[in-house]
UniProtKB/TrEMBL annotation:
Gene: mreB
Organism encoding this protein: Caproicibacterium amylolyticum
Organism taxonomic ancestry: Bacteria, Bacillati, Bacillota, Clostridia, Eubacteriales
Name of protein: Cell shape-determining protein MreB
Family: Belongs to the FtsA/MreB family.
GO BP terms in the entry: cell morphogenesis; regulation of cell shape
Protein's job: Forms membrane-associated dynamic filaments that are essential for cell shape determination. Acts by regulating cell wall synthesis and cell elongation, and thus cell shape. A feedback loop between cell geometry and MreB localization may maintain elongated cell shape by targeting cell wall growth to regions of negative cell wall curvature.
A Pfam family the protein falls into: MreB_Mbl
Main localization (coarse): cytoplasm
Keywords: ATP-binding, Cell shape, Cytoplasm, Nucleotide-binding
GO cellular component: cytoplasm
Annotated compartments: Cytoplasm
Record's keyword annotation contains Transcription: no
Length: 337
Protein backbone atom coordinates (compact mmCIF):
# COMPACT_ATOMS: atom_id res chain seq x y z
CA UNK A 1 0.00 0.00 0.00
CA UNK A 2 1.23 3.46 -0.84
CA UNK A 3 2.37 5.62 2.03
CA UNK A 4 2.57 9.36 1.94
CA UNK A 5 5.82 11.15 2.52
CA UNK A 6 6.59 14.87 2.78
CA UNK A 7 10.06 16.05 1.82
CA UNK A 8 11.67 19.37 2.69
CA UNK A 9 14.38 19.71 0.07
CA UNK A 10 16.35 22.50 1.72
CA UNK A 11 19.59 24.16 0.67
CA UNK A 12 21.27 23.03 3.88
CA UNK A 13 19.16 20.11 5.13
CA UNK A 14 16.73 17.61 3.66
CA UNK A 15 14.04 16.19 5.93
CA UNK A 16 11.36 13.60 5.37
CA UNK A 17 8.07 13.07 7.18
CA UNK A 18 6.00 9.93 6.91
CA UNK A 19 2.28 10.07 7.42
CA UNK A 20 1.33 8.51 10.72
CA UNK A 21 4.96 8.30 11.81
CA UNK A 22 6.45 11.81 11.90
CA UNK A 23 9.96 12.84 10.90
CA UNK A 24 11.88 9.82 9.61
CA UNK A 25 14.96 11.45 8.10
CA UNK A 26 17.12 14.50 8.64
CA UNK A 27 20.32 14.87 6.61
CA UNK A 28 22.52 17.70 5.33
CA UNK A 29 21.90 18.35 1.59
CA UNK A 30 25.48 17.47 0.76
CA UNK A 31 26.99 14.93 -1.63
CA UNK A 32 30.62 13.81 -1.87
CA UNK A 33 31.62 13.03 -5.44
CA UNK A 34 34.76 11.44 -6.87
CA UNK A 35 35.63 13.77 -9.74
CA UNK A 36 37.63 11.14 -11.59
CA UNK A 37 34.64 8.86 -12.03
CA UNK A 38 31.70 11.14 -11.11
CA UNK A 39 30.72 8.46 -8.63
CA UNK A 40 28.87 9.49 -5.47
CA UNK A 41 31.01 8.50 -2.49
CA UNK A 42 28.85 9.69 0.42
CA UNK A 43 25.55 11.49 0.95
CA UNK A 44 24.21 13.47 3.89
CA UNK A 45 26.04 13.90 7.20
CA UNK A 46 28.98 11.71 6.17
CA UNK A 47 29.45 13.85 3.06
CA UNK A 48 29.17 17.05 5.10
CA UNK A 49 31.95 15.86 7.40
CA UNK A 50 34.17 15.71 4.32
CA UNK A 51 33.80 19.40 3.40
CA UNK A 52 37.22 21.01 3.35
CA UNK A 53 38.85 17.71 4.34
CA UNK A 54 38.76 15.73 1.11
CA UNK A 55 41.71 14.59 -0.98
CA UNK A 56 41.92 16.33 -4.37
CA UNK A 57 39.86 13.78 -6.21
CA UNK A 58 36.82 13.93 -3.92
CA UNK A 59 34.69 17.03 -3.58
CA UNK A 60 31.83 17.61 -1.19
CA UNK A 61 29.13 19.71 -2.83
CA UNK A 62 25.84 21.27 -1.77
CA UNK A 63 23.84 21.00 -4.99
CA UNK A 64 21.18 23.49 -3.85
CA UNK A 65 23.55 26.04 -2.43
CA UNK A 66 21.85 29.35 -3.18
CA UNK A 67 18.27 28.24 -3.19
CA UNK A 68 18.42 27.08 -6.78
CA UNK A 69 19.38 23.69 -8.12
CA UNK A 70 22.96 24.32 -9.14
CA UNK A 71 23.52 20.78 -10.29
CA UNK A 72 20.67 18.63 -11.63
CA UNK A 73 22.51 15.33 -11.78
CA UNK A 74 23.88 15.57 -8.27
CA UNK A 75 20.56 16.75 -6.85
CA UNK A 76 18.85 13.81 -8.50
CA UNK A 77 21.38 11.34 -7.11
CA UNK A 78 21.13 12.88 -3.67
CA UNK A 79 17.34 12.66 -3.69
CA UNK A 80 17.49 9.04 -4.79
CA UNK A 81 19.77 8.20 -1.85
CA UNK A 82 17.55 10.10 0.58
CA UNK A 83 14.40 8.40 -0.65
CA UNK A 84 16.06 5.02 -0.22
CA UNK A 85 17.16 6.01 3.29
CA UNK A 86 13.63 7.15 4.11
CA UNK A 87 12.17 4.05 2.53
CA UNK A 88 14.01 1.86 5.03
CA UNK A 89 11.86 3.37 7.79
CA UNK A 90 8.68 2.07 6.25
CA UNK A 91 7.90 -0.59 3.74
CA UNK A 92 6.21 0.76 0.67
CA UNK A 93 6.32 -0.11 -2.99
CA UNK A 94 5.52 3.25 -4.51
CA UNK A 95 5.45 6.20 -2.18
CA UNK A 96 3.38 9.27 -2.90
CA UNK A 97 5.39 12.34 -2.10
CA UNK A 98 4.72 16.03 -1.51
CA UNK A 99 7.83 18.15 -1.89
CA UNK A 100 8.66 21.56 -0.46
CA UNK A 101 11.19 23.27 -2.70
CA UNK A 102 13.00 26.59 -2.52
CA UNK A 103 11.16 29.44 -4.18
CA UNK A 104 13.92 30.17 -6.69
CA UNK A 105 13.45 26.80 -8.33
CA UNK A 106 12.37 27.10 -11.97
CA UNK A 107 9.86 24.95 -13.83
CA UNK A 108 12.71 23.01 -15.46
CA UNK A 109 14.34 22.36 -12.09
CA UNK A 110 11.02 21.32 -10.64
CA UNK A 111 10.71 18.81 -13.46
CA UNK A 112 14.19 17.52 -12.60
CA UNK A 113 13.12 16.94 -9.01
CA UNK A 114 10.02 15.20 -10.29
CA UNK A 115 12.11 12.93 -12.54
CA UNK A 116 14.61 12.17 -9.78
CA UNK A 117 11.83 11.10 -7.44
CA UNK A 118 10.30 9.04 -10.20
CA UNK A 119 13.62 7.27 -10.79
CA UNK A 120 13.86 6.53 -7.09
CA UNK A 121 10.65 4.57 -7.42
CA UNK A 122 8.31 7.13 -5.89
CA UNK A 123 5.86 9.65 -7.28
CA UNK A 124 5.43 13.39 -6.71
CA UNK A 125 1.85 14.30 -5.89
CA UNK A 126 2.38 17.96 -5.34
CA UNK A 127 4.88 20.75 -4.77
CA UNK A 128 4.20 22.96 -1.76
CA UNK A 129 5.68 26.46 -1.61
CA UNK A 130 8.13 26.46 1.27
CA UNK A 131 6.85 29.56 3.08
CA UNK A 132 3.38 28.04 3.21
CA UNK A 133 4.71 24.79 4.64
CA UNK A 134 6.85 26.73 7.13
CA UNK A 135 3.84 28.74 8.31
CA UNK A 136 1.72 25.60 8.62
CA UNK A 137 4.46 23.83 10.56
CA UNK A 138 4.85 26.83 12.86
CA UNK A 139 1.17 26.57 13.74
CA UNK A 140 0.02 29.75 11.98
CA UNK A 141 -3.63 29.97 10.84
CA UNK A 142 -2.73 29.87 7.12
CA UNK A 143 -6.21 28.89 5.91
CA UNK A 144 -7.99 31.70 7.78
CA UNK A 145 -8.78 35.13 6.34
CA UNK A 146 -6.04 36.56 8.55
CA UNK A 147 -2.62 37.79 7.48
CA UNK A 148 0.26 35.72 8.89
CA UNK A 149 3.87 36.65 8.32
CA UNK A 150 6.59 34.04 8.29
CA UNK A 151 10.33 34.62 7.89
CA UNK A 152 12.28 31.48 7.07
CA UNK A 153 16.05 31.85 7.40
CA UNK A 154 17.63 28.77 5.84
CA UNK A 155 21.10 28.02 4.52
CA UNK A 156 20.92 29.62 1.08
CA UNK A 157 17.92 31.93 1.23
CA UNK A 158 15.82 33.93 3.63
CA UNK A 159 12.20 34.03 2.55
CA UNK A 160 9.50 36.31 3.88
CA UNK A 161 5.86 35.71 3.11
CA UNK A 162 2.47 36.98 4.12
CA UNK A 163 -0.15 34.27 3.86
CA UNK A 164 -3.92 34.56 4.01
CA UNK A 165 -6.66 32.09 3.04
CA UNK A 166 -4.05 29.52 2.11
CA UNK A 167 -2.28 31.71 -0.43
CA UNK A 168 0.89 33.77 -0.44
CA UNK A 169 -0.14 37.42 -0.86
CA UNK A 170 3.23 39.11 -0.47
CA UNK A 171 6.65 37.57 -0.80
CA UNK A 172 10.33 38.41 -0.88
CA UNK A 173 13.40 36.20 -1.07
CA UNK A 174 17.04 37.14 -0.61
CA UNK A 175 20.10 34.96 -1.07
CA UNK A 176 21.42 35.91 2.32
CA UNK A 177 21.03 33.32 5.08
CA UNK A 178 23.13 30.84 7.07
CA UNK A 179 25.78 30.30 4.37
CA UNK A 180 26.31 34.02 3.92
CA UNK A 181 26.57 34.42 7.71
CA UNK A 182 29.35 31.82 7.70
CA UNK A 183 31.13 33.59 4.83
CA UNK A 184 30.85 36.91 6.67
CA UNK A 185 32.60 35.34 9.67
CA UNK A 186 35.38 33.95 7.47
CA UNK A 187 35.83 37.34 5.86
CA UNK A 188 35.86 39.21 9.17
CA UNK A 189 38.48 36.95 10.76
CA UNK A 190 40.64 37.06 7.66
CA UNK A 191 40.57 40.84 7.56
CA UNK A 192 41.01 41.48 11.26
CA UNK A 193 43.42 38.69 12.23
CA UNK A 194 45.03 37.60 8.92
CA UNK A 195 43.71 34.18 9.78
CA UNK A 196 42.10 31.74 7.40
CA UNK A 197 39.37 29.48 8.80
CA UNK A 198 37.26 26.83 7.06
CA UNK A 199 33.55 26.82 6.36
CA UNK A 200 32.81 24.24 9.06
CA UNK A 201 34.69 26.25 11.68
CA UNK A 202 32.81 29.40 10.70
CA UNK A 203 29.49 27.58 11.07
CA UNK A 204 30.51 26.27 14.49
CA UNK A 205 31.47 29.76 15.64
CA UNK A 206 28.14 31.13 14.42
CA UNK A 207 26.08 28.41 16.06
CA UNK A 208 27.97 28.58 19.35
CA UNK A 209 28.55 32.25 20.01
CA UNK A 210 26.89 34.02 17.09
CA UNK A 211 24.18 36.56 17.83
CA UNK A 212 22.12 39.18 16.08
CA UNK A 213 21.63 41.32 19.16
CA UNK A 214 23.24 41.36 22.60
CA UNK A 215 21.27 38.92 24.72
CA UNK A 216 21.80 37.38 28.09
CA UNK A 217 24.20 34.47 27.92
CA UNK A 218 25.93 35.57 24.72
CA UNK A 219 27.12 39.00 25.81
CA UNK A 220 30.45 37.87 27.20
CA UNK A 221 30.83 34.64 25.29
CA UNK A 222 34.15 33.91 23.59
CA UNK A 223 35.62 31.01 21.70
CA UNK A 224 39.12 29.84 20.97
CA UNK A 225 39.52 29.03 17.31
CA UNK A 226 42.20 27.55 15.10
CA UNK A 227 43.13 28.64 11.62
CA UNK A 228 46.02 29.17 9.27
CA UNK A 229 47.94 32.41 9.49
CA UNK A 230 48.09 34.33 6.23
CA UNK A 231 51.33 35.93 7.40
CA UNK A 232 53.53 32.87 7.89
CA UNK A 233 51.26 30.01 6.80
CA UNK A 234 51.38 28.39 10.24
CA UNK A 235 48.52 27.13 12.38
CA UNK A 236 47.46 29.73 14.92
CA UNK A 237 44.97 30.09 17.80
CA UNK A 238 42.95 33.19 18.53
CA UNK A 239 40.09 33.99 20.87
CA UNK A 240 37.06 35.51 19.25
CA UNK A 241 34.22 37.20 21.11
CA UNK A 242 30.46 37.24 20.60
CA UNK A 243 30.64 40.97 20.06
CA UNK A 244 33.04 40.54 17.16
CA UNK A 245 30.80 37.93 15.55
CA UNK A 246 27.82 40.26 15.97
CA UNK A 247 29.76 42.91 14.11
CA UNK A 248 30.71 40.40 11.40
CA UNK A 249 27.06 39.41 10.89
CA UNK A 250 25.42 42.81 11.04
CA UNK A 251 25.51 43.74 7.32
CA UNK A 252 24.07 40.37 6.28
CA UNK A 253 21.35 40.59 8.92
CA UNK A 254 20.44 44.04 7.67
CA UNK A 255 19.64 42.52 4.26
CA UNK A 256 17.27 40.06 5.95
CA UNK A 257 15.62 42.94 7.83
CA UNK A 258 15.24 44.82 4.53
CA UNK A 259 13.45 41.81 3.03
CA UNK A 260 10.90 42.03 5.86
CA UNK A 261 10.38 45.74 5.20
CA UNK A 262 9.94 45.15 1.46
CA UNK A 263 7.36 42.43 2.11
CA UNK A 264 5.42 44.70 4.44
CA UNK A 265 5.37 47.37 1.74
CA UNK A 266 3.83 44.88 -0.68
CA UNK A 267 1.17 43.75 1.83
CA UNK A 268 -2.43 45.05 1.50
CA UNK A 269 -3.37 47.36 4.41
CA UNK A 270 -5.94 45.06 6.05
CA UNK A 271 -3.42 42.25 6.25
CA UNK A 272 -0.77 44.66 7.51
CA UNK A 273 -3.07 45.42 10.40
CA UNK A 274 -3.19 41.69 11.21
CA UNK A 275 0.58 41.51 11.16
CA UNK A 276 0.87 44.46 13.50
CA UNK A 277 -1.29 42.45 15.92
CA UNK A 278 0.19 38.98 15.38
CA UNK A 279 3.73 39.83 14.39
CA UNK A 280 6.39 37.82 12.61
CA UNK A 281 7.10 34.13 13.13
CA UNK A 282 10.69 33.08 12.39
CA UNK A 283 11.51 29.57 11.13
CA UNK A 284 14.53 27.77 9.63
CA UNK A 285 17.96 27.18 11.16
CA UNK A 286 18.68 30.92 11.19
CA UNK A 287 15.88 31.36 13.72
CA UNK A 288 18.24 29.68 16.22
CA UNK A 289 20.71 32.56 15.98
CA UNK A 290 20.70 34.21 19.40
CA UNK A 291 18.99 37.58 19.50
CA UNK A 292 17.26 37.26 16.13
CA UNK A 293 13.86 38.10 17.65
CA UNK A 294 14.98 41.24 19.55
CA UNK A 295 16.84 42.48 16.45
CA UNK A 296 13.78 42.06 14.22
CA UNK A 297 11.59 43.64 16.87
CA UNK A 298 13.90 46.63 17.14
CA UNK A 299 14.05 47.08 13.36
CA UNK A 300 10.33 46.61 12.59
CA UNK A 301 8.50 47.49 15.80
CA UNK A 302 6.48 44.28 15.35
CA UNK A 303 6.09 41.45 17.83
CA UNK A 304 8.46 38.62 16.86
CA UNK A 305 8.28 34.95 17.80
CA UNK A 306 10.74 32.18 17.07
CA UNK A 307 8.82 29.04 16.08
CA UNK A 308 9.19 25.90 18.13
CA UNK A 309 11.70 23.51 16.49
CA UNK A 310 12.43 25.99 13.71
CA UNK A 311 14.53 23.51 11.67
CA UNK A 312 11.54 21.16 11.44
CA UNK A 313 8.79 23.66 10.54
CA UNK A 314 8.77 23.08 6.78
CA UNK A 315 8.69 19.30 6.96
CA UNK A 316 6.18 19.39 9.81
CA UNK A 317 4.04 21.67 7.64
CA UNK A 318 4.21 19.11 4.84
CA UNK A 319 3.31 16.47 7.43
CA UNK A 320 0.27 18.43 8.62
CA UNK A 321 -0.78 18.77 5.02
CA UNK A 322 -0.55 15.00 4.51
CA UNK A 323 -2.39 14.14 7.70
CA UNK A 324 -5.16 16.64 7.07
CA UNK A 325 -5.69 15.90 3.39
CA UNK A 326 -5.38 12.15 3.75
CA UNK A 327 -8.76 11.59 2.11
CA UNK A 328 -9.58 14.72 0.15
CA UNK A 329 -6.31 14.46 -1.79
CA UNK A 330 -7.21 11.25 -3.55
CA UNK A 331 -9.00 13.21 -6.29
CA UNK A 332 -5.89 15.31 -6.97
CA UNK A 333 -3.90 12.11 -7.35
CA UNK A 334 -3.47 12.21 -11.10
CA UNK A 335 0.12 12.68 -12.31
CA UNK A 336 0.71 16.31 -13.19
CA UNK A 337 2.37 15.88 -16.58
P1 LIG B 1 17.54 25.00 4.55
O1 LIG B 1 16.07 25.02 4.72
O2 LIG B 1 18.03 26.00 3.55
O3 LIG B 1 18.05 23.62 4.30
P2 LIG B 1 17.79 25.10 7.43
O4 LIG B 1 16.49 25.68 7.81
O5 LIG B 1 17.96 23.64 7.61
O6 LIG B 1 18.16 25.50 5.93
O7 LIG B 1 18.91 25.89 8.24
C1 LIG B 1 20.26 25.65 8.04
C2 LIG B 1 21.07 26.83 8.47
O8 LIG B 1 20.79 27.11 9.85
C3 LIG B 1 22.56 26.58 8.35
O9 LIG B 1 23.18 27.70 7.75
C4 LIG B 1 22.99 26.42 9.81
O10 LIG B 1 24.33 26.85 10.03
C5 LIG B 1 22.01 27.34 10.51
N1 LIG B 1 21.90 27.03 11.95
C6 LIG B 1 21.66 25.83 12.53
N2 LIG B 1 21.71 25.93 13.87
C7 LIG B 1 21.99 27.23 14.15
C8 LIG B 1 22.20 27.98 15.35
N3 LIG B 1 22.12 27.41 16.55
N4 LIG B 1 22.49 29.30 15.25
C9 LIG B 1 22.58 29.89 14.05
N5 LIG B 1 22.39 29.25 12.88
C10 LIG B 1 22.10 27.93 12.92
MG1 LIG C 1 14.22 25.37 4.60
Amino acid sequence: MAKDIGIDLGTANTLAYMKGKGIIMREPSVVAVDVRTDAVVEVGSKAKDMIGRTPGSIVAVSPLKDGVIADFEITATMLKHFIHMAAKSGRFSKANIVVCIPSGVTEVERQAVDDAIDKAGARVLEFIPEPKAAALGAGLPVEEPVGSMVLDIGGGTSEVAVISLGDIVAYESVRVAGNKFDEAIIHYIKKKYDLLIGQQTAEEIKNQIGSAYPTEGTENAALQIKGRSLVDGLAKNITITAEEIREALSDSLQIVVEAVHTTLEKTPPELCADIIDHGITVTGGGALLHGIAPLLHQETGLPVRVAEDPLDCVVNGAGKYLEKDAHSKKSADAPQE
